[in-house]
């Protein structure tokens, strides 16, 4: 059976995700992508992070989560915001990204609701 081709990701969704990643990076104390990507445990290359933050490409959900985890839990810089603020910002960023049509969670919720048996 042939797979259905997925519609392209909207520019809006790519821009939102890029902005979320940029904000989390800055909250974690990294002023530049280069500084973050030069950290040994960084899960993405400098060019990939630039591409995501500019909204040119959408990271996979896994890549997005790995970057947020890196910024918030693994390697916040010395100039990072207080830990509680950084963690709250990380949570808000993940929640916002999951609600975008690009990651299909709203569609999954709709499908679950339609499959529920009526009481």
Describe this structure in words.
The chain is mostly helical and 119 residues long. It has helices at 11-27, 33-37, 46-53, 61-74, 83-98, 105-115. 60% of the residues lie in helices and 0% in strands. The chain is globular. The mean pLDDT is 94.
Identify the notable features of this structure and list them briefly.
mainly alpha; 119 residues
Task: Set out the fold topology.
Layout: H1 11-27, H2 33-37, H3 46-53, H4 61-74, H5 83-98, H6 105-115
Distance between the termini: 35 Å
Output the helix-strand order.
Answer: HHHHHH
Shape: globular
What's the alpha carbon Rg, rounded to whole Å?
16 Å
State the helix count.
6
In a few lines, what is going on in this structure?
With 119 residues, the chain is mainly alpha-helical.
């Amino acid at each position: 059976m042939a797979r259905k081709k997925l519609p392209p990701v909207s520019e809006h969704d790519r821009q939102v995700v890029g902005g979320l990643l940029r904000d989390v990076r800055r909250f974690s104390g990294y002023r530049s992508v280069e500084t973050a990507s030069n950290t040994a445990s960084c899960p993405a290359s400098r060019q990939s992070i630039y591409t995501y933050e500019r909204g040119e490409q959408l990271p996979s959900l896994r890549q997005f989560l790995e970057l947020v985890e890196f910024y918030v839990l693994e390697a916040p810089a010395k100039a990072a915001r207080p830990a509680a603020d950084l963690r709250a910002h990380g949570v808000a960023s993940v929640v916002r990204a999951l609600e975008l049509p690009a990651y299909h969670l709203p569609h999954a919720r709709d499908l679950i609701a339609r499959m529920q048996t009526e009481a």
